[in-house]
Amino acid sequence: MVVYSSRTDHREQAASEPACDVSSAREHLVASALTESRLDAYASNKAILHQMSDGLPGSRVLSGSWGEETFAFGIPKGRDAARPYLEAFAKKARDTGAVRRAAERAGVRGLASH
Q1: What is the reported pLDDT for 39?
Q2: Which of 5, 44, 49, 85 could, after both became Cys, cross-link 58 (CB 3.0–4.6 A)?
Q3: Which residues, in sequence order, are CB contacts of 16 under 8 Å at separation 6+?
Q4: Contact partners, residue 53, CB within 8 Å, separation at least 6
Q5: For 60, phi and psi rounded to 5 degrees?
């Protein structure tokens, strides 16, 4: 969760600069609402929160979580023979740390520890 400090010096600074560099209109609106003290907190996934927090003076990402995003691979119907390979590939990528290293190279912050 991002919490924005409503101290005047931050609001004055934010009024003269873009609130943050975000990829979606919704996140831009949320950042504006936080900057203007119309919103005290915002919840989303950790990667988005860290990105938003970088551009919002006085904000911070709280520890812990209120939800979790899970990703999965899929195979087309009729290609069941691919399932053992896909399961082994995913397990190896996770167990060897390849997924975590790829996320770190991409600058993703806030990954779950399991």
Answers
A1: 86
A2: 5
A3: none
A4: 2, 59, 60, 61
A5: -155, 155
Token digits of residue 44: 């989303």
Whether this model's pTM surpasses 0.85: no
Residue 8 makes CB contacts below 8 A (sequence gap 6+) with none
Q: How confident is the model at residue 114 (pLDDT cuts 50, 70, 90)?
A: low
Residues of the chain above pLDDT 70, percent? 78
| CA separation for the pair 114, 103 (Å, rounded) | 14
**β-bridge mates for residue 61, sequence order:** 2
Query: 62, 61, 53: which is closest to 35 by C-alpha?
Result: 53
CB count, 10 Å around CB of 7? 12
